Records
---
Amino acid sequence: MKTWIHIPKQSDFSIYNIPFGIFSSKKRKPRVGIAIGNQVLDVFAAYKLGIFKKIKIKKRVLKNNFLNDFIALGKEKTTKIREIIQQELCNENSILKENNAVFLPQNEVQMHLPIVIGDYTDFYSSMEHATNVGMMFRDPENALLPNWKHLPVGYHGRTSSIIISGKPIHRPKGQVLPPNEKHPIFKASNRVDFELEMGFIIGKSTTIGNHITTHKAEEYIFGKVLFNDWSARDIQKWEYVPLGPFLGKSFASSISPWVVTLEALEPFKVKGPIQEPEVLPYLTYEGFKNYDINLEVSIQPKNKDATVVSHSNFKYMYWNMVQQLAHHTINGCNIKVGDLMASGTISGKSTTSYGSMLELSWGGKKPLKLADGEERTFIEDYDTITMKGYCIKNDIRVGFGEVSAQILPTL
C-alpha cells in the first residue's frame, strides 16, 4: 500500500498497522484515535466528514473514554472501519487529505487507558521462564511442575492497578522473610522487577456455562498490547505458597496505549514450539498460532542513557493465545469485552532473551552492567523501564510503540 501521508521509515505505525487507542488534547475530550506515523488520526473527526456513512455507528461510540463500546461493534464493523481508513490514507483525493484538523501530532496528545478492564488473567506460558524460575527456587532436575506441560497455568489478577504507560509507580511495601530467618519483617521491597509480557484484549462476550474452542478463539480476540507485569520478588517469595501471587504482583501493571488488531498481525504468524507430551483434545489446534514479534527491554537510570538489557520474541511462547482462551473458558467461565489476558513473562533460550531481572541477574547473583558502568540486580529508585515491540516481514512493519514507567521511592 502506498499512502500520501508521511510515515517515517522505521515507524511502528505504518499503513499496515492502524492500531486503536484513546487520546485527548487541550481542545478535544477523550475519544477514539488511530496512530499513523508520528500522528494521531481523530476517528470521530473522520466520522463527521462522512467516510463511515455506510456503517451504522453511534457518535458516543467514537467520542468515548474507552474502546469497549467500539470493540463491541464486532469485527465485521471494526475491521471495515480499519479498512476504510487504510483506503482513505492511500487515496490521493481523500477528504482526509483536505482536512488537517483530523490529524494531531502524537507529541501533542495525551494517551489514556484504552479499555475498561473488567477482569484480568495472567498466564505463565513461557517454558524457558518457568524452567528458569523452577531451577532457582526448586529442584533444578525437575524445574517444571507436573501440570505445566498439560495446561496453560494462570491466575486471576487485580484490574484496579493496571495503569497506562508513562504513569510512575511507587516502590511497594510488604512482608519479607530475610535469609536464614524464621520470622518475616515489614519493609519496602528491594527486589522490584519487570516482567516482559504481551496482553490480548477480548472482543466478544460469552455467557456463563459456554466455552470457546481453539478453532473459534481468534474470533474473540480483538487485539494485542505490550504489558509490564511488575513484581516484588521478595514479597512474592514469602507469600506465594500455597495460593500464589498477591501483594507481590497487585501493586501495579503497565499497559501500552495502542491496541494492535489481530488482522494487522496476520502476516507474522509462525509455527509454535513442539508440545510434548501431546495435549488433551480441547487444547489441540490447527495452523500457525504463534506470532513473530520482536521485543526489547531497557533500563534508564535518572538523567542517564538507557541500556537495552533484553531482546526477546513472542514466538517463543509454549502455550499460545487460542489455547489460553480455550482453557480459560473450558469450565464454563464467561468472558466480557475488554477483559485482558496477559501472556506471562516472555523468555527465550539465550541469557540475553530473558524477560525479567530475576532471570537476567539469576536471582541477584549476576549483576548486569549498564552503559554508564552502573550495575543492577533489580530495579532501583528512579529507574525507568521501557518495553518495545514490533513485527517486520519484507517491507511490512507493524509495531506497538512502547510501555514505560519509572519506579519512585516508597510512600
Note: The mean pLDDT is 97.
---
Amino acid sequence: MTSWIEIDKKSDFTIYNIPFGVCSINGSRKRLATRVGDQVIDLAKVADLGCFQDLRISPSVFKKETLNNFISRGKRKTSAVRKRIQELLTTDSFLKDHPEVFLAYDDVEMHMPVEVKDYTDFYSSLDHATNVGKMFRDPENALLPNWKHLPVGYHGRASSIIVSGVDIHRPKGQYKPKDAKKPVFGPSQRMDFELEMAFIIGKSTKLGDSVKVNRAEDYIFGMVIFNDWSARDIQGWEYVPLGPFLGKSFASTISPWVVTMEALDLLRISSPEQSPKVLPYLRQKGQNHFDIDLKVGIRPENGEETIVGTSNFKHMYWSMVQQLAHHTVNGRNINVGDMMASGTISGPTEKSRGCMLEISWAGTQPITLNDGSQRSFLHDGDTVAMYASGEKDGKRIGFGMLESKLLPVK
C-alpha cells in the first residue's frame, strides 16, 4: 500500500499500522484519533463526514474520552474502521479536500487511551527471571520450581497507570539498608524502570468463565509499551511473603498509541519450545510470539540520551495467550480495557537486559552514560524513554516513544 500522505520510511506509523489513541487540541474535548507519519487524524471529524456510516458505528463513539466504548464494539467493527482508514489514505478519497481532519503531532496532547479498571503484571521473561534468581537466590537453581509450569503474575494497581509525558515523583517507603539491623523510612534509593509490553483486553467475560488458550487472542485488542517503575529497595523489604506492593504501585507508564493485533500479524513468529511440557490448558497452537525490537534510554537533566538496553519481545517464555488463559482458568472475569503487562523483557546477553537491577547487577556494576556520569539506579531528573518497533518485507510497525521523567520526592 502507498499513501498519499508523506510518511518517512523510518516512521513507526506507516500505512500498515493505523493505531488508535485519544487526543485533544488546546484544551478541547478529548476525541479518538489515529496516526500516520507525523499526522494525527481526528476520527471524530472523519466520522462526522460519514466515512463510517455504512459500518453502522455512530459518530458519537469517536467522541468518547477513552477507547473502551469503541473497543467494546468488537473486532469485526474495529477492524473494519482500521481498514476503512487505510482505504481513505491509499485511494483518491475525498479526505484530500478536508485538511481539518489532519493535525500535526506536535500540536496535540495525548491522553490515556483506555480506562483501566484492572491491571496484572506478569513475570514471563526467562532471562530476566534467571538473572534475578542468580542475584538473590541460588546461581545454580535460579528459577523457582513453579516458573516453567505457569505464567507467574500479580494483581497491580490500575489507577496509577499513566500515559507517556506525565512525570512521576520518587516514592517514599520503608527499606532496609544493607547490613542494617532495622528498616528506615525515606525516599527510595534504588529507583528503576522495567522495559515491558502490555496487552489490552477487547472482550469481556462473565465471572466463572475461562478463556481457552487457542481462543485467547479473540479477547486481545492491541498492545502498548509499558514502563513498570520499581523502587527496588522498598520492593526488596516488603515482598516476602506476599509479593510486590508499595515498591510497584506508585506509577506505571504506557505509550499513547494502541497498536492492534491485526497490525502486529506482520511480526508473528513461532513460539519457543517449552520444557517441561506445560499442562493441557496452556498448550498453544500457531505463532503466538512477536518479533518486536525494544530499547530503553536514560536522558539526564539537560543531557543527551544514552541507550542502556536493547531487547526483543520474542524473548518472552510465556506468550500473551498463555498468560490470559492462565489468568482466567479459575473463572476470574475480564473487562474491556483491562491491561496485562509482560514483566521485564530481557534477552540472553548483557546488552539485552531490561532494567537497571540487571544492567548494574544490583548496583555492583555501574554503567557510564554519554555525559560521563554513572548510574547504578536512576537519579532525580532522569528521563526514561522506551521504544518498540518491528519490520518485515519492508513494512514497518511501531509504537512510537514512551517517556517520563523522575522528579525529586514530593
Note: The chain has a mean pLDDT of 97.
---
Amino acid sequence: MTLEFEKLTADLEKMAQTTARRLSQRSERVAEALDTLHTYRTNWTAVSNALTTAKEKSDEKYYRSARPFSENEPLDSHIPAPPPPPQATIIAADGSQIMPDRHAAHLYYLINVGGIIYHHGSGRTPETFSQPDIFYPDNDETIDNFNDTPGAVSIERDLKEIQTLARKTAANRHNAQPLLAILDQRLLYWPIGSAGIAVNSAVSDWSRDMSGIRDAGALLCGYIDRPGTSSVMMLLRSIVGLSDAQFNWKELGQRKATQGVTDADVFSQILGPGERSAVFANISDANDVFMAQDAANEVCFFYLNPGMSGQNIARVDIPRWVAEDEVSVTAVHSLLIDQCRIMGNYPYVIARADEMAVVGRQDASELNFMIDIIMERHGISNDITSKQGSKDLARGARTRHEGF
C-alpha cells in the first residue's frame, strides 16, 4: 500500500463540512428558482422579454439558455407518462474503444459499436449486434499524420455510434411502428478535444445521420443520465434580471450566474416518478449550426424522472421534427419510461447497448495477444518501450484501474 489514508482524515472532515454547507446554500437557491418558475409559468410576455434582453446584453461567448418550445405547456409542467403503444421497435447503439498506446509493441486503436433491436410488445427476442474496427498506420510516410490522440479517437467513436444507429434504423424501417432510435449521449453534438479533426466536418456528418434517421420514418432521442446543464436556469435568471437593476447580464452562461444550481436540481423538486417536464429548445451557437444545415435538426429537450421512486433526473434530447409533433413526444416519453421499468430507473436498451459495446481489460489483453501471434508469423518483433516495461515490472499485478 502506498497511500497513507490516515493522513487524509482531517481533510475529509473539512470536505464533509464544506459539502454540507454547499448543499444548504443550494437548497435556498433552488427554492428561489422554483418560485420564479411557478410565478412566470405562463407569462409568455415576460419570457419573451427576458430572452430578447439576454441576447442583447449577455456575452455571446458564454450565453447558453433555453426557451419554451410551445406555449401549450407551462414552464412548471409535470406530465405523467401515458401507456406505451401496443407495439414498437426500439434501437439503441453505444460505442467503446481501446485507446492507442505509443509505448506498446504496435500502434493501433480500436472502436467497437454495439447495440440492440428491441421488439416492444411482440414477444420476439431482442437482437443484439456489435462491430469492432481496428485502425493503424498503413505506411511509414503517413505515420506522423496518424491521428491517434484520445480526442480524435473519441470523436471517431461518436460518429460511428450515430452512423451505425442510422444504418440499423433504415434497415428496420418496415418493422413495427413507432420506430425509436436512441443514443446514450446528447444530440447537440460538438466535438471536444478535437485536435486534428475538422469540427465542421464532424458536425456535418452527425447532422447527416440525424436526417437519415428522420428519413427512415423513425423518432430519435439522446438520453443523458444525471445531466449537469443549466439552460432552463439561465432562462429563469434572465427573467429575474428584468426587475433587478444590479443584475449582471454579462455573467449569463457562466456557472456563477446560477451559483451552481442545475436544471436537474430544480426539476427534481417538480417531477414525480415517470413524469416529464415541458419541452424546451436549446439556445446556443452550436444549435444555430445544426439548424443552418437542417432546420428540422434543431435540438430540443425535456427533463424526465425515470424511476419508480426517488428523484434521479435525466435529460432527453429530441430534434425539432420530434418536438413539433405531440404524438411523437408522447411515444418517446412512454417508451422510455416503459424501458426504465424493466430495470428500475434506467432504459434497458441503453444498458444492453453498453454491454454489447464495452471493451474490457480482458478483451484488450486477448486482442494484444492475438496481434502478437499474427505479427510473429510475419517475423515482426513485439517489443514494448522501456518505460512501459519498467511500469509493468514495478506494478506487478497492480493497475491504476480495472477497465476501459
Note: Confidence is low (pLDDT under 50) at residues 385-390, 399-404.
